TrEMBL record:
<dbReference type="InterPro" id="IPR019734">
    <property type="entry name" value="TPR_rpt"/>
</dbReference>
<feature type="repeat" description="TPR">
    <location>
        <begin position="117"/>
        <end position="150"/>
    </location>
</feature>
<protein>
    <recommendedName>
        <fullName>Tetratricopeptide repeat protein</fullName>
    </recommendedName>
</protein>
<dbReference type="InterPro" id="IPR011990">
    <property type="entry name" value="TPR-like_helical_dom_sf"/>
</dbReference>
<keyword id="KW-0802">TPR repeat</keyword>
Length: 215
């Protein structure tokens, strides 16, 4: 028989999977999770239920689910996001999360690093909301180091610099990212036969440089 606390964590994961994004959970919990989500109705209430089910989070699974749920709930919960994201990052991480290297839109992604970058970015966003801009910049840069194909992490770090009155530093940093290997568009295999080019990194970077220059 499954221990009640394990069942609650597994149910929390199945619930989060419905409203926050894919996470490992037993198939057996899905029916109960769907019924509970329907009963709760509102997405915010489902996220709060995820947090409630994790009780006082101690395991990496509970800390991950709690931190991410609070991050989705936004600014009013920035303090909680900061607390639990920091606690999660001090662990070895949730080993059940995808750990492989996969190809997405023509780019190789290290899933373990990307999962960690996601939490680091959640922490940065919370710090930004709490007015801790230097810490936020540092963590956006850390997320970018972990997942260098994600231009938005670099952009958010640059935005923080600009907010601190360091516009020229922000622009120099963004221009430097044109040397990234992800700046060059790559062939994107077509899922339904229509291949194309993935220029997302380049487009986001160039658009933000122009936006900053115009300020």
């Amino acid at each position: 028989m499954t221990h009640p606390s394990i069942h609650q964590t597994e149910l929390a994961a199945a619930l989060f999977d419905l409203v926050g994004g894919p996470v490992p959970h037993p198939y057996e919990q899905e029916e109960e999770a769907r019924a509970l989500a329907k009963q709760l109705g509102d997405r915010s209430k489902v996220l709060l239920k995820v947090i409630e089910l994790c009780k006082t989070p101690t395991t990496p699974e509970q800390l991950y689910l709690t931190a991410r749920a609070y991050s989705f709930l936004g600014g009013p919960y920035a303090g909680e996001t900061e607390r639990y994201a920091t606690a999660y990052l001090s662990t070895d991480g949730w080993k059940g999360l995808p750990q492989r290297t996969v190809e997405e839109e023509g780019i190789l992604i290290n899933q373990a690093a990307a999962n960690r970058a996601c939490i680091v970015s959640d922490l940065a966003a919370a710090e930004e909301h709490l007015g801790k801009l230097e810490a936020a910049i540092s963590h956006y840069l850390e997320a970018y180091r972990l997942e260098p194909s994600q231009a938005m992490y670099a952009i958010k770090a640059a935005d923080g610099m600009a907010q601190r009155g360091r516009k020229e530093e922000a622009l120099a940093f963004l221009r430097q990212q044109k040397k990234s290997r992800y700046y060059t568009p790559v062939d994107r295999p077509g899922r339904w036969g229509a291949a194309g080019r993935n220029a997302t990194f380049q487009e986001l970077l160039n658009a933000h440089i122009l936006k900053l220059e115009a300020k």
